Amino acid sequence: MTTESTISTPEKLPQNAERIMGAAIRLFAQKGYAATSVREIVQEAQVTNPMLYYYFDNKETLFERTLNHLMRYRHENVAAIVQSSVAFRSKLRALVELHFESLRENPYILQFIYAVLFGPRESRPDYDIRCEHDDTVDQVAEIFRQAQAASEFEPNTDDYKGLADRFIGLIGIELMRGLKTLEVLPESEAERYLDEMTGPDAVENLVDFFLNGAGRAR
Amino acid sequence: MTTESTISTPEKLPQNAERIMGAAIRLFAQKGYAATSVREIVQEAQVTNPMLYYYFDNKETLFERTLNHLMRYRHENVAAIVQSSVAFRSKLRALVELHFESLRENPYILQFIYAVLFGPRESRPDYDIRCEHDDTVDQVAEIFRQAQAASEFEPNTDDYKGLADRFIGLIGIELMRGLKTLEVLPESEAERYLDEMTGPDAVENLVDFFLNGAGRAR
Amino acid sequence: MTTESTISTPEKLPQNAERIMGAAIRLFAQKGYAATSVREIVQEAQVTNPMLYYYFDNKETLFERTLNHLMRYRHENVAAIVQSSVAFRSKLRALVELHFESLRENPYILQFIYAVLFGPRESRPDYDIRCEHDDTVDQVAEIFRQAQAASEFEPNTDDYKGLADRFIGLIGIELMRGLKTLEVLPESEAERYLDEMTGPDAVENLVDFFLNGAGRAR
Amino acid sequence: MTTESTISTPEKLPQNAERIMGAAIRLFAQKGYAATSVREIVQEAQVTNPMLYYYFDNKETLFERTLNHLMRYRHENVAAIVQSSVAFRSKLRALVELHFESLRENPYILQFIYAVLFGPRESRPDYDIRCEHDDTVDQVAEIFRQAQAASEFEPNTDDYKGLADRFIGLIGIELMRGLKTLEVLPESEAERYLDEMTGPDAVENLVDFFLNGAGRAR
DNA sequence: CATGAATGAGGGTTCATTCAT
DNA sequence: CATGAATGAACCCTCATTCAT
Fold first, then answer.
1. Does the N terminus or the C terminus of chain D have fewer Cβ atoms within 10 A?
2. Do A120 and B154 touch (CB under 8 A)?
3. Residue D34: pLDDT over 80
4. Distances (CA, A) of D206 to B30, C156, D3, D166, D215
């Protein structure tokens, strides 16, 4: 029932290139593009400076290819969920779990993506992440469309894209809260916190909120 | 019915300091802290370089004081709403309108704040914005508590803080979408777009979604 | 018998100018001309910045007038000793005591002067301290000349200026050692150290060494 | 009989590092640490700015390593003299000659060292040159101890360290006088002056003065 | 593939000094 | 006399990048 965490065809790279990209993810996530220096990246990757320019043309390209790598990974995983033949609610759950899983596995990835999504555009190369993001939104919107067609879902609006945006947004809110909390949490308590905030109850709770809202107002 | 946009006690600064802070808001919002150079700021402010160091001790302090300035402004406006004696739903609407108004008046401010909230922490001075943000969340949570006590609100959960977080988060999602759209919209269409996305219907729609959710799932 | 420490006609200055000069002495002594900023001086003097430019034309002039002030003071005190009608040996003792007294009273003054005498010339305004210093050497040389004429002194050489240079130099060595030791000594032990290193025995010892040398070599 | 001027183990540096250090010696000697800018150093060394930071971490480290380099050189040469098996007086002569030789070879080195020794401490990085200097003093003191033990020397005091301090001090006085004179002497007369002031007679004269003092006082 | 060495441009910051009041 | 505000030039240092080997 849970989404598998198999990374889909992560395009095999030479070991050094892999190290560089790994370091780039961590550092771009923690410090952002502008505040991360090439020197830091190669140091973290334990690689000499010109190696970076050999495998990636420059800092900008490294950023783009790294981001592409991560986005494609997410895109494919979302696609798998959309196309899976499970019930509507299960798909929503699966989407939430996909992101929670990602948070548990490598928080840097999410931090990176959200920093790009919400951070200032001119602080980094002009990567059209909104476009990529919109793709994902469209994918998710398709879930709602199908669900309504199959009478599995009776939406309060017919703006499927708006719904998708808000659903993904709600997931993002949850993740950001988790990330920020993890940053200030002692190592010892991190795991328990993660287990709780990404557990089945939390998933269910989020889906419930999305479907039913906060409550009745008089 | 709408919240007034009166800026509360904007602490009078010398003209040049004002110019610097204004430029800082715009540039930090557009490019982030790390990618914005002091030289750019003083150029945008049409002020000589040492002036920045005369009024603010350094780039870091300028950032902190600027952010403080903006957060206090928001905090006070939210406080006014919380303490106002209007109906529950009206308070929610007022909160949404406050942010929409801010978007219309000076989008840079929101961009700035959200960049700090969601951007990588190490890309800027260590400002505890999460703490400030939590204050706001607590304020909003108080709204829910009071509403339930007054039987104006029948929540699906008793986690008021969670509700507040999600409500503010939903507003943020809406704002981010608006900001990103504005960035790519031609000047000519910007105003109409803004009017629509921040109009009364949009406010109502957002509050509705928050209270009632996406719809019924079978 | 000891030289009086009366400062001879210190040219009455307005209070603020006095404060500035005092701060300048301390700071130039501790950090040198180049490493001392005008801001530091006015801060130490608790005076506003333009005051310095009102009383002294600029940093350079402040330096020159300050140094002049100190040199003239020394020059006059040495002159008094040279012209006094005491025995040869007493004059030598008086010269040593004059410097030791100065060390006790205000070590900054000596530090200042020696820094200028021995420090790199281009690190400060082109003040001909060598010339001033030579004046003092000539004064002291006169002591030897008179002493020999009066058969009070039977020198091993007739290079009076060389003798004077070495005598003053030996005093300087002693002072430098004292200054450097004071720098690393805890406040509590400073006074006792000073008392001992500038006491009558020390004076006698130094004069003895100058006259008789280190000892006999076979 | 004269000490050889062979530079002992000058630790091989890359050519550019060597140029930088050479320029640093000249400039720090002439202008002091504070008044010497990094730009001047790299210009004098005919090297680009970042090169300095490549080989030395920063201006401060450059200063420390340069000073260390020079002090070690002196220390080793003094050690060679102390351990040599020549007569007491010859050792003293050798010490004088060592410094005179250094003055002839590269006056900047001595200027540098003396500026650090006597200049204001806070005008430069906190290098414990006094400690290094004390080492040298201790080395020289050992000469006196050995000479007395061998009945080659009958000192007027048993404060060997005091004697060493004064002996080195006297050499310093002589050198400072030479340096200051050279500064104002036309190029054409410099060499003759140097030859005279560092010639065998001068050496003998200085040693004589140290041992026998200025003369008899009645 | 891999490296040590090198560079032009620009980073944040502080300098001595002066203006208008 | 005295001040707060202002300035052009220079400070030390680091950036992303590339060269020759």
1. N
2. no
3. yes
4. 73, 12, 17, 12, 14
Distances (CA, A) of A99 to A81, A118, A162, A165, D161: 12, 17, 20, 15, 75
Proportion of chain B in helix, strand, coil states, percent, rounded to 5: 75, 5, 20
Residue-wise pLDDT for C37-76, tens only, equals 999 999 999 999 999 999 999 999 999 999 999 998 889 9
Q: How far is the CA of C38 from the C1' of E14 (A)?
A: 11
Higher pLDDT, residue B117 or C36: C36
B15 touches strand F (CB under 7 A): yes
Residue B9 contacts strand F, CB under 7 A: no
- In chain B, which residues have their Cβ closer than 8 Å to the Cβ of A156? 208-209, 212-215
- CA B202 to chain centroid, in Å, comes to 17
**Burial of C181 (C-beta count, 10 Å sphere; 0-12/13-18/19+):** middle
As ranges, strand E nucleotides with an atom below 7 A of a protein CB are 1-20
Res. D211: pLDDT tops 90: yes
Q: Is C125 on the interface with D (CB under 8 A)?
A: no
Helix (H, G, I), strand (E, B) or coil at C120: coil
Nucleotide F10's nearest residue (CA vs C1') is: D37
pTM summary value: 0.89
Residue B77 DSSP SS3: helix
pLDDT in tens, D102-140: 999 999 999 999 899 888 989 999 887 778 888 899 999
Q: Name the residue in chain A with its Cα closest to that of B87.
A: A218
What integer pLDDT is reported at residue A169 of this predicted model? 94
Question: CB contact, 8 Å: B125 with chain A?
Answer: no
Rounded-to-integer distance, Cα D32 and Cα D64, Å: 13
DSSP states of A32-100: HHHH--HHHHHHHTT--HHHHHHHSSSHHHHHHHHHHHHHHHHHHHHHHHHHS-S-HHHHHHHHHHHHH
Would you say the C-beta of A83 is within 7 Å of strand F?
Answer: no
**Residues in CB range of D91: below 8 A, 6 or more apart:** D81, D82, D84, D143, D147
- Residue C120 CA to residue C86 CA, distance in Å, equals 38
Asked if residues B129 and B116 have their Cβ atoms less than 8 Å apart, the reply is yes
CB contact under 8 A, A118 and B176: yes
What's the CA–C1' distance between C38 and E16, in Å? Answer: 7
As a whole number of Å, the end-to-end CA separation of chain B is 38
Nearest one of C206, C213, C181 to C194, comparing CA atoms: C181
Question: Which pair of tokens denotes residue D212?
Answer: 């026998």
Are B215 and A156 within 8 A, CB to CB? Answer: yes
Residue of A nearest to B115 (CA): A119
Of the pLDDT bands very low, low, confident and very high (cuts 50, 70, 90), residue B7 is very low
| Predicted local confidence at residue D145, as pLDDT | 95
User: What is the least distance, in Å, from the CA of B210 to any CA of chain A?
Assistant: 5
Give A 48-77 residues with CB within 8 A of chain B.
none
- Helix/strand/coil percent split, chain C, to 5: 75, 5, 20
The domain made up of B61-212 has a fold known as Tetracycline Repressor; domain 2 (1.10.357)
In chain C, what are the domain boundaries?
61-212
A34 touches chain B (CB under 8 A): yes
A215 DSSP β-pair partners: B155
C-alpha–C-alpha distance, residues B42 and D32, integer Å: 34
pLDDT recorded at residue D19:
96
Query: For residue B198, what is the DSSP state?
Result: T
Name the nucleotide with the smallest C1'–CA separation from A42.
Answer: F16
Structure tokens given for A98: 């996909």
pLDDT the model gives residue C117: 86
Put simply, whether A173 touches B (Cβ < 8 Å) is: yes
The interface residues of chain A toward chain B in range 127-146, judged by CB-CB distance below 8 A, are: 130, 144
